[in-house]
Design goal:
single chain; 152 residues; Trna Endonuclease, Chain: A, domain 1; three-stranded antiparallel β-sheet; 8 strands; 24% helix
Length: 152
């Protein structure tokens, strides 16, 4: 049995996997996913399903460029849509979309510019936010089109 207060037991943190070694060098791993990460992932899945149901084509999910990430990249007819998905399990800390401040907007614009350059896209681009509230019994969406402009 591992005593987690025994600091002589080596512990390494790698992403969301925690590796710990028992005596005799038998190593085990435990997958740890914070509840808010799971909520966010569920929200992104629901948002992608919603967008598909209203005629969007999902091009990319969780597209990364160095330190920036775009949750969803989609086509709305011929328009390239960069989508930030914000999910909460309640409104106790405010509406999800309120957490997309100026700094996050700039990161999304930078990531979108990188995506457009790498994909050689010449499409007009729009920035949307999908706000998702997931409760134990239901979920709701708010799709905010043209949520911000790269020139803001």
């Amino acid at each position: 049995m591992v005593d987690f207060y025994d600091f002589s037991t080596p512990v390494w943190y790698v992403g969301f996997i925690v590796y710990f070694c028992l005596s005799g060098y038998q190593c085990h791993s435990i997958s740890i996913m914070a509840e808010h990460n799971e909520t966010g992932k569920n929200g992104e899945n629901l948002a992608a399903e919603y967008l598909t149901s209203i005629g969007f084509e999902i091009l990319e999910r969780n597209w990364k460029n160095r330190f920036e990430e775009i949750d969803l990249i989609a086509l709305d007819k011929e328009l390239l849509v960069i989508v930030e998905v914000k999910t909460r399990s309640s409104l106790a800390f405010g509406k999800p979309e309120e957490s997309v401040g100026l700094r996050k907007q700039r990161l999304l614009v930078n990531a979108a510019e990188a995506y457009i350059q790498k994909s050689n896209s010449n499409r007009e681009t729009r920035f949307d936010i999908i706000s998702v509230i997931i409760s134990s019994q239901s979920h709701s969406f708010q799709h905010i089109k043209h949520a911000f402009s790269p020139f803001d």
